[in-house]
């Protein structure tokens, strides 16, 4: 037996004022979406209304659709857009007595800017005639849009004509619509905030990108309020989990109503943050022409309002290239917003003019953080491989865990893309780092150049210090340096401590300082167990260089900064200490000092070193031999 599944979708109405949207929603669902007293009094929709529609697909699957009823009046377009942030299908309404009107056109453009792909057209008030004429007019107006072939259903709430047909048409359309994807990055675009006595603050919105669960820790952007979900309702039912594509009401008792507003986004706690600078591709509808104000080219540097999700934020637009944006054209631009938004790559938005009278453009987010170079214009935003490749090509490299977190792809999908691209030799993946091939090749070549230069310039040095390498390469992220060094060490390089060198490199002193080496050795050999202090030996830059060489190569042992011994002296002292103690039992510093004929200055750090090396160990104020002694 086939298991019946329930699929969730969001429908929003659209269309000119008074064309019968709310009446149609009531006829479809039985509930009146106009809930405000002002709306009832004026018989007009002012703000978003909500209803639920249960349908059954031909195969028996249940279809659960949340309907968002929007206002048609031109004064409330901003409320209308807030309802459209993430819908699956538009119920586009045109009245038979009125035909195509200004907000029919404006709403259609808004749906296009937001990338809505599906619509069912209700030709309302069919009892008032002109079905054929208006039907043809609608068809003509939809030509060239994604709704070219969308079904048109004449309806009348007066006579009941077409309502059943409309229900069936919606069911057929939704049965072949893909459900919203679960990429484990839930975002609830909040469109209502209110309080219920005894329950506290409730926010409602359309959930996208992932699930929300009762009890989860969440954060509200852009205010960064962290809180916990006490309970969730969907279509008046308590639920444990809300899925993408559901109208969702969340109880957040720890937040006050005045701490949240429409347009905020509720999401899980994560490392991302909202941003006020975005790189976008912005377009002006080719449907705008003539000398209407809305058709005027959009000037570089214009102030405007950006509608994203349920939010509306003032901002300024700056095109990458000079010049204005004309109807039918698109440009890459930087948006600077008055308040940050939590956007992902591929999110759509609508642009309205600063007086909020006209819808003037729309676009898609290319880089939600706007701090990187612009994504190549030709990138396919809905292809994860292409996006990963382009992102790495643009920024050189990324830490795997930070790559494309603000995108419409899940962490698993991104990880899989990395594996595939690496397998095809299109990118480099090393440990926690993914990089563009060319970037990696250059970085590697630069690093090798620096190691070789260090060997050439200071043949007496073991190699180059990793800190030095990091700052010469201007690397900020320790993970990148780690991956690079690991990569180099798979080839002809070795790392010892914090130094990297060519495997073949043997440090040598330049000829002209050879006499200095001789002098130092003689000075240290004169009283081998109590040699002069470093200060006395290291009198100029040359002796400093040679001493460092001798220490790095192990010819001179550095007991303390100021106490240096020739290696052979150190070895002799070590065996004499061991011999003395094994003959005389545990001994004090002073006994050993006298026995070896040295000073406390040398003996104290010597014994500390022998303790560390596991030759001796403390026993009160005496030293005894270490049990598992390595001589
Ligand atoms: N004759 C007739 N009148 C209708 C029909 N549908 C709606 N009306 C009337 O048209 C008027 C407007 O209907 P609404 O449903 O409020 O229109 P709307 O599109 O929601 O309007 P806004 O939300 O303000 O944009 C009301 O007086 C309805 O009774 C219909 O099928 N036939
Ligand atoms: Mg209405």
Please tell me about this protein's structure.
By secondary structure, the protein is an alpha+beta fold. It is built from 17 helices and 33 strands. It is elongated. The chain binds guanosine-5'-triphosphate and magnesium ion (MG). Magnesium ion (MG) binds near residues 22, 34, 45 and 69.
Concise structural overview:
With 631 residues, this protein is an alpha+beta fold.
Helix and strand topology:
Blueprint: E1 6-15, H1 21-29, H2 37-42, E2 49-56, E3 62-69, H3 77-82, E4 89-95, H4 102-113, E5 119-124, H5 131-142, E6 152-154, H6 163-175, E7 187-196, E8 200-208, E9 212-213, E10 217-221, E11 225-228, E12 231-234, E13 237-239, E14 241-242, E15 247-251, E16 265-268, E17 275-283, E18 303-308, E19 311-319, E20 330-341, E21 348-353, E22 359-367, H7 384-395, E23 397-399, H8 411-423, E24 427-430, E25 433-436, H9 437-457, E26 464-465, H10 466-472, H11 478-489, E27 493-496, E28 499-502, H12 514-526, H13 534-537, H14 541-552, E29 556-560, E30 563-566, H15 567-584, E31 587-588, H16 589-596, H17 600-612, E32 616-619, E33 622-625
Parallel strand pairs: 1-3, 1-4, 4-5, 5-6
Antiparallel strand pairs: 2-3, 7-8, 7-16, 8-15, 9-14, 10-11, 10-16, 12-13, 12-15, 17-20, 17-22, 18-19, 18-21, 19-20, 21-22, 23-25, 24-25, 26-28, 27-28, 29-30, 31-33, 32-33
Helix pairs in contact: 7-8, 16-17
The chain binds guanosine-5'-triphosphate (GTP) and magnesium ion.
Magnesium ion binds next to helix 1.
């Amino acid at each position: 037996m086939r298991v019946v599944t329930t699929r969730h979708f969001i429908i929003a109405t659209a269309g000119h004022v008074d064309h019968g949207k709310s009446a149609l929603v009531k006829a479809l669902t039985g509930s009146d979406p106009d809930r405000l007293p002002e709306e009832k009094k004026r018989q007009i929709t002012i703000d978003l209304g909500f209803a639920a529609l249960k349908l059954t697909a031909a195969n028996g699957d249940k279809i659960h659709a949340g309907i968002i009823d929007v206002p048609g009046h031109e004064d409330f377009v901003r409320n209308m857009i807030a309802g459209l942030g993430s819908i699956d299908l538009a119920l586009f309404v045109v009245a038979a007595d009125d035909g195509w009107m200004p907000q029919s056109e404006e709403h259609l453009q808004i749906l296009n800017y937001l990338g809505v792909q599906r619509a069912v057209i209700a030709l309302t008030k069919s009892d008032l005639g002109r079905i054929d004429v208006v039907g043809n007019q609608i068809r003509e107006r939809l030509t060239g849009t994604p709704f070219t072939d969308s079904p048109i259903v004449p309806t009348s709430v007066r006579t009941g004509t077409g309502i059943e047909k409309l229900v069936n048409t919606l069911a057929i359309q939704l049965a072949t619509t893909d459900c919203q994807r679960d990429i484990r990055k839930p975002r609830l675009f909040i469109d209502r905030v209110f309080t219920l006595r005894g329950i506290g603050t409730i926010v409602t919105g359309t959930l996208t990108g992932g699930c929300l669960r009762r009890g989860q820790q969440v954060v509200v952007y852009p205010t960064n309020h962290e809180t916990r979900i006490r309970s969730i309702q969907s279509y008046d039912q308590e639920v444990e989990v809300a899925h993408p594509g559901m109208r969702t009401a969340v109880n957040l008792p720890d937040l006050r109503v005045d701490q949240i507003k429409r347009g905020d986004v509720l999401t899980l706690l994560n490392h991302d943050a909202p941003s006020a600078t975005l790189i976008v591709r912005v377009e002006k509808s080719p449907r705008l022409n003539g000398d209407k104000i809305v058709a005027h080219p959009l000037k570089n540097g214009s102030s405007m309002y950006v509608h994203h999700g349920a939010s509306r934020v003032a901002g300024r637009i700056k095109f990458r290239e000079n010049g204005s944006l004309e109807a039918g054209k698109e440009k890459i631009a930087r948006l600077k917003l008055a308040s940050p938004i939590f956007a992902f790559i591929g999110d759509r938005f609508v642009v309205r003019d600063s007086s909020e009278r006209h819808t003037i453009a729309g676009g898609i987010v290319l880089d939600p953080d706007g701090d990187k170079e612009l994504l190549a214009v030709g990138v396919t935003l809905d292809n994860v491989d292409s996006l990963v490749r382009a992102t790495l090509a643009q920024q050189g490299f990324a830490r795997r865990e930070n790559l494309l977190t603000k995108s419409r792809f899940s962490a698993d999908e991104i990880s899989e893309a990395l594996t595939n691209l690496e397998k095809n030799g299109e990118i480099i993946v090393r440990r926690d780092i993914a990089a563009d091939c060319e970037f990696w090749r250059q970085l590697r070549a630069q690093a090798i150049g620096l190691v070789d230069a260090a060997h050439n310039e200071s043949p007496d040095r073991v190699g180059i210090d990793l800190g030095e390498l990091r700052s010469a390469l201007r690397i900020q992220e320790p993970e990148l340096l780690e991956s690079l060094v690991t990569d180099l060490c798979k080839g002809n390089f070795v790392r010892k401590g914090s130094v990297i060198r060519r495997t073949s490199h043997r440090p040598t002193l330049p000829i002209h300082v050879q006499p200095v080496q001789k002098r130092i050795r003689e000075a240290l050999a004169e009283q081998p167990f109590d040699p002069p202090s470093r200060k006395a030996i290291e009198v100029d830059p040359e002796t400093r260089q040679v001493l460092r060489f001798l220490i790095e190569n192990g010819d001179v042992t550095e007991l303390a900064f100021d106490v240096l011994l020739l290696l052979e002296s150190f070895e002799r002292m070590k065996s004499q200490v061991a011999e003395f103690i094994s003959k005389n039992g545990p001994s004090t510093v002073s006994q050993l000092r006298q026995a070896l004929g040295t000073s406390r200055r040398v003996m104290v750090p010597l014994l500390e070193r022998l303790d560390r090396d596991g030759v001796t160990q403390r026993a009160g104020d005496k030293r005894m031999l270490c049990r598992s002694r390595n001589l």
